[in-house]
Records
---
Amino acid sequence: MPPEKKNDSPVALEQRELSADQRMFSPSVARNSAPILAVLKRVLPTRGAVLEIGCGTGEHAVYIAGAMPHLTWQPSDPDADARTSTTSWIKFAGLKNVLAPRDIDVCSGQWGLEQPGHFDAIVSINMIHIAPWAASLGLFAGAGRSLHAGGLLLLYGPFKRDGAHTAPSNAAFDAALMERNPSWGVRDIADLEHVGGAAGLILRETIEMPANNMLLVFSSGSA
């Protein structure tokens, strides 16, 4: 069914299409889903449970889980419209390995998860730069509780290295983010490493991605 109308989410940086069944369509997901999946196929386990933080439209959830059917994918988002869209995408795709989206706010000290150390991996795509620094702190703290030893935290988006942007376009993007909300912004890898260390997470790999993005791979406990 083709998109019918526009949807402007308060945390979205793009105009999204909305179908009659409440599925949102993100232009950025259409661009980056294939490169992200290629990396996830390499770094994620072949089986296990994955928690997605900030699932947005839900398109990444069904795209990745559809290509990796032996994973159980748990999407989550604090935004009700995002969860509605994700639920509709799950129904549309007919996937049995994608669970109903959870309402998780990473800034909350409690994520409402039943079992600490349950997840093999946590994935967050294009989230921490459109959220306050407290969201990064909460994400790492929650990942430290929710991952089992050797579990992975995967972060995708633009990042700074040692205080410097990796491309002029990222510097302009960072300025636009902070103009929109002073608490937002492109995060520095060194700062994330420091926060990760406090939560027992170590940066294992930094993967260059298209359009001046990166995918950071942190691991919990012993490698």
---
Amino acid sequence: MLKIALTGNIASGKSSVQLFLEEKSYPVLDTDIVCHELLENSVEIAEAFSEYDVFHDGILSREKLGQLVFSDPKLKKMLENLLYPDLIAEIQAFFAVNSDSKLVFVGIPQLFEAGMENLFDRTILVYCDDKIREQRLIARNKYTKEYAQIRMKSQLSQDIKAKKVDYIIYNNSTMDDLHSNIIKVIEQIR
């Protein structure tokens, strides 16, 4: 089994790549979804952030928590320290369940920032021009231009990631082009 990390910065098109891979019957784990579930169910995280305005009707608000941690690097690090051990356990469980598969994919935006690249045999970056990503965040997420830029700057630059990965899937054009680029990379991996 080849364990393949699929990384990319916010609004790069990772979800579109993951969906395409799922449609082709590859096992795919979306760590964004895993992290959302961990946040919803973690008493430890709720307690750690109890003194901050990150709750709505007594429930931890991912939106409020995101705004807080992306404006304070120390709090972001605290959240990551609470979240990442459980995330790694979920990734390992996914590998165990899919051990008979030839290729398995894990969508993990913070691959290098979290130091998790050693969990994988191959790494793929979904690369999209910064201007396109910014436009997507404003349109899709209803972010202000300023907040979109804060979120984009909170991640390691795509150019640095591009030097660290094994493969790059470019996503600056149409969905058909994206699908062709995915197929080319999968053929190279096989």
---
Amino acid sequence: MKKIIIIGAGFGGMASAALLAKDGHDVTVVEKNDQPGGRAIVWNEKGFVFDMGPSWYLMPDVFEQFFALFNKKPEDYYKLIRLNPAYRVFFDKDEIVDISPDLEKNLQLFERYQKGGRAQLKKYLQAAEYQYTIAMKEFIYKEYRHLWDFFSLRLLLKGSKLHIFTSLDRYAQRYITDPKLRKILEYTMVFLGGTPFDTPALYSLMSHVDFNLGVWYPDGGFGALARGFQRLAVEQGVKFEFNTEVEKIIVKNGSVTGVKTSKGETPADLIIANADYPYVEMNLLEPTYQTYPKEYWAKKAIAPSALLMYLGVKGKIKSFAHHNLYFATDWEKHFQTIFHEPKWPENPSYYVSCPSKSDATVAPANDENLFILVPVAAGLEDTPEIRERYFNQIINHLELLTGENIKDRIIVKRLFAHKDFTQYYHAYKGTALGLAHTLGQTAIFRCSHQSKKVKGLYYTGHYTHPGIGVPMVVISSQIIAEQLRSAP
């Protein structure tokens, strides 16, 4: 039995803790904030309950597989609702479409926009399902320690069928010529921290996730999901220390010996960092022990930050579904401002979550809970004036799209951006998501699960393989647990 300290109570940290405690280790999770969930913390104000981070529950099979490792099911810890519609897309105030859990309705939608679109979407989704199956079996759960693990003949043969070396947008154009329909197939790239023009076509598998596996909602929000993961971990014997910040990882003779926290020193045989990877490397380790120093991060493609708006609105907003997406006419220009010419966008695409459409517990009766996300480049200047200007721009545009008065009915308002991501999560450049999903930052090319300089130091979370998103960090934790089981 080893004494293990996990830095950070995000989903990767809690999943790792549960798995390692189940294996018989003494595990403690140390968290700087006052609640579990990492970026999925909750803010309560005047009867409104806001999920401050993740809001899309996707890839339910990943959660089922994870809980099955404990002979449990997700529903033992939280209740799931399949959303109908899965989400609503606003192209303009007079052009609104719903993506349904009923595939037939989606096929009809694609046929309306593109002659032959029905058959083409069917083919695209069949290919996406194949890619998902192969990726989950051969790539996603696999540990990559050496370059030849990734470039093995077997994986290269599989990879050619996954179109790893083709961009998603170029691949999607083979099936769907209508640009509006392609946006529906490609929007998930924003939440993976990439663009459809730079992200490998492998990620077309997200359309299988989207259309076939469905979009779900954990009743009570992602706070309920976080509490479920915490309860599972506690049942395995994991201890949690909240409001406790790790200030230094103690290393002697090249091996971890413990951590120095805001409350003192704690010994450890192993440390797993679920905190922001660049922060751990550059702030908790001495330069001698940094696998990835400052110069490394400066060259990396960092996923977007976001301007988040948490709004409590008096009365109902009829036009919204639970998930709502607005796609700007020139969305390629918005992507340019995020990844290639970093600046605040002029006319951005954005996302609106209205969980009160599905969950009566997140807002007072007959009121609406709104979470608005505007993707923006990491590392930008972030001032109250900029936030307020964009708040007014987005709300005015929403009122135009919906034909409803929103601004005058706002009774709770909080804006959250780069500086807050850094303050709350020690996020590098204020990123909301971590390391972008480009070909050069996929699989073996992402940050290592194991420190190359310090024995006994491991990493989980969205900077490591397989990447960004709650399902991915849960898988990351399983990769680490398997690594430790096979360690000498």
